[in-house]
Amino acid sequence: MDDDDVSYDESLKARIKASVHYTVGKICQREESEMGVKCSKQFLAALAELTYGKCGSLASDLESFAKHAKRSTIQVEDVKLCARKNPSLAKLVAEKATDLEAETQERLSKKRRKDNKPADEDGESASDAAPSAAVASAATGATHKSKKVRQA
User: Fold this and answer.
1) In terms of Cα–Cα distance, which of 65, 59, 69 is closest to 78?
2) pTM, entire model
3) Strand pairing partners for 119?
4) Among candidates 62, 26, 66, which has minimal Cα distance to 44?
5) What are the C-alpha distances in Å from 144 to residues 134, 136, 151?
6) How far apart are CA 17 and CA 53, in angstroms?
7) For residue 118, what is the DSSP state?
8) Which of 28, 53, 50 is nearest to 38 (CA)?
9) Domain ranges within the chain, ordered by starting residue
10) Are 25 and 48 in contact (CB under 8 A)?
11) CATH superfamily of 10-71
12) CA–CA dist 45, 21 (Å, integer)
């Protein structure tokens, strides 16, 4: 790695840490107002550092689980494995995975319905009519182009 890569990596790491610190601060502000407590700056900094470290550890574990399964992509099952030692977290992850799967299936079924238009009065489906309309417009366009060529 050359100096440019190292400085870029350190800059990226600093920006990510700052982003985590900012987000933890916003969450703490919200919780302060709901719970009626005050978080010190030292607490906020420690919590942000702990969160950043846990995210790094989680990322490493997720990569290891995917690699062990001979995959290069992290999947839901890898996240479930990370949460397996915390029953309440495992339950939340499983529920969210189920919700995401249902949303995905709903989007796919809507797309399939959109692709399979119902037949019109002539018994011709919208997908059958589209090519003839495209051919007609192409023929019309070709006629206009040929007129322009003749005029020139």
Assistant:
1) 65
2) 0.62
3) 125
4) 26
5) 15, 12, 11
6) 10
7) P
8) 28
9) 10-71, 84-114
10) yes
11) Histone, subunit A (1.10.20.10)
12) 7
45-54's contacts with Cβ under 8 Å and 24+ in sequence apart are: 45/21, 48/17, 48/20, 48/21, 48/24, 51/20, 51/24, 52/16, 52/17, 52/20
Rounded CA-CA distance 65/90 in Å is 16
Between CA 132 and CA 26 the distance in angstroms is 57
In degrees rounded to 5, what are phi and psi of residue 125? -75, 165
- Site of tokens 């059958």: 128
> What pLDDT is recorded for position 149?
42
* Residue with token string 């238009």: 117
Cα separation, 76 vs 66, in Å, equals 10
| Helix locations, the chain, DSSP H | 3-35, 41-68, 76-82, 87-115, 126-151
Digit-coded pLDDT (tens) for 73-130: 999 999 999 999 999 999 999 999 999 999 999 999 988 888 876 655 555 544 444 4
Q: How far is CA 150 from CA 45, 51, 88, 144, 146, in A?
A: 76, 72, 77, 10, 6
Distance CA 117, CA 112 (A): 9
